[in-house]
Amino acid sequence: MALIDTSAWVEYLRATGSPLDRATEALLYEDAFTTDVVVAELLMGARDELHAQKLLAMLNRCHFVPTRPLFDFEQAAAVYRACRRGGFTPRSLADCLVAAVAIDRGLPLLAGDADFPRIAEHTPLALVR
pTM for the full model? Predict the structure, then answer.
């Protein structure tokens, strides 16, 4: 059971054969979770409408965890501030938002983005290892 970040989906979609690719594939047949910001990021990378529909069909196999207006964004800002206090500046609001959703919902995060291990150093974010 894990929330799958965009970076893990990209590895899976490219069929890299990496541990991250294999872990994403395994979760698809167990308990994969996604959230709206991840859906948006993936759809932004779609080549065309047909590709976007295929991505949506894949994502529909996951449990969907929507962000909650205001609350999750406040938590994302808190993630950002905690990291800054610790001397690390996260590169994107999306990463802070994904981390905040994972923390609040008690879901470990599967991700390949280099910012997430750093975020986990300064917050209660649990990562799939």
Answer: 0.95
